[in-house]
Amino acid sequence: MKSLKVLIAAGLSTVAFASMAHAADLIVDPAPVMPGVVETSGNWDGAFVGAFGGYASGVTAPDNTGSTFDLEPAGWQLGVNAGVNFTLSNGIVAGVVGDIAWADLSDSLTFTAPFSGSYDSKVDWLGSLRGRVGIDGGDFLPYLTAGLAVAHNTLSVTGNGTLSDDQTHIGWTVGAGAEFAVTDELSIDLLYRYSDYGTKTYAISGPEEDVGLTAHQLTVGLNYAF
Fold first, then answer.
1. How far apart are CA 129 and CA 224, in angstroms?
2. What CA–CA distances, in Å, run from 201 to 61, 152, 208, 215?
3. Of 51, 120, 123, 171, which one's alpha carbon is 20 to 30 angstroms from that of 213?
4. Pick from 59, 58, 98, 107: which is nearest to 79 by CA?
């Protein structure tokens, strides 16, 4: 009888040990590994090229107080840009960028005395060469920009015939923008700029007139970094 009790006890112990070992295996088995999240690099250093489009609204007006016309040419622009960035200390990113854009900014002002006709202004291209200073926010780069601005404008007067003159204005521009990294190479660039293209002398009717040109520009671009 004693031997039977010993055998039963040994059997129960074996079953209990096997159950505990199986439970331990269930606990120790590692949980499935979830795929990691790949973070976009915050390194903005290097050269880049891009393309952009946007809207611009300007003012073309003589510099004298007895202005014969004030025009507000507005429309779309489409261009390309290229530049380079380099990181300074404390997360500051500096850079230089140049751009050139085809533009279709126009306005017309009708007059009736001493004869009927119209004044017209058309800006057909814009460009700039600017410095940039921004803060490295990882995949986000807010920045300020300023530099040289260039625009080509044609003024014409239509009445008893048509007279026109075109000039290339050179002035300055300032603005603010933000770049958002999409991948390690691609980024979206949002930019607002105010540009004062200075004054040029036009001969379109009667005496020559000094005419100033300014513009507000809002653009969206896509940049590719090398």
1. 19
2. 11, 13, 6, 18
3. 51
4. 98
Asked if 213 contacts 198 with a C-beta cutoff of 8 angstroms, the reply is yes
Taken as a whole, the chain contains a residue count of 226
Compute the average pLDDT of residues 79-106: 96
Spatial contact of 137 and 93, defined as CB atoms under 8 Å apart: no
Contact of 223 with 190, CB cutoff 8 Å: no
Q: How does residue 207 score in pLDDT terms, banded at 50, 70 and 90?
A: confident
Spatial distance between the Cα atoms of 182 and 205, rounded to a whole number of angstroms: 52
Q: pTM here?
A: 0.78
